[in-house]
Amino acid sequence: MTQPGDPRSGGEHRSGTDADQSAAELIGAALGGAARRAGLSPDGAESTQKVVWGAMGGWRGILESVLPSLAFVIIFTVRPEPLILSLGISVGLAAVFTVVRLLQKSPPAAALGGLAAAGAAALLALWTGRGADNFVPGLITNALYGTAMIVAALIGWSLIGLAVGFLMGEGTAWRSNRRRRRAFFWLGIAWGALFYLRLGVQLPLYLTDQVTLLGTLKLVMGLPLFAPMVAVTWLVVRALYPRAE
């Protein structure tokens, strides 16, 4: 039994804090690295338009995000049977984009990730025979991302703050700055709300098997909502970290 002032009592607390700090640093480094690869630069010199365009991946990123799902929705609407037709064309387009990325020496993980997700969704839909199941991975992703964003913000370790902190080279020091901590809290809540908004609109359509409307709203609530959120986030970051003249 430890007594007040016993070094062992504080040691256990510090050990837990150190573990939290280490985990936060690993997550922050990964998120910060992803932000860099998306085209975000710590010097803050880019225009907001350029930052948003880079985050979306330019024209290729937009086509990769939109065309497979759009092809599935159109073909399924025109000819729902056989299901393998619309799924095959959707996955085929994802495969073409993947091959192009590999030929252009893009990182294999980034090139294969989208194809793997599209293939898994298609296999699930073929297994169940429901076209709506092609959207299950997206629903799960929105639920997980939304939960992670909001929970992290509520416990004081905003994922947006972790990403920006390592992108800007200050690690987790932003947590001791009241203004930055508050801003990253609300940004985390806003991003979480975006993911939950998608889930709240799309899940009822999935449960009622409204495949065409579900696919359409998935596209409408994709990049058109993602881009403004990136712009707002970047503007807040520029205000929090004014660039030296």
Automatic annotation (TrEMBL):
Q: Which residues cross the membrane?
A: 59-78, 84-103, 110-128, 148-171, 183-201, 221-241
Tell me where on the tree of life, at the top rank, the source sits.
Bacteria
- Protein keywords: Membrane, Transmembrane, Transmembrane helix
Q: Which residues form a coiled coil?
A: none
Query: Which Pfam families does the annotation name?
Result: DUF3159
UniProt region (Disordered), positions on chain: 1-20
This one is known as DUF3159 domain-containing protein
Annotated organism of origin: Microbacterium suwonense
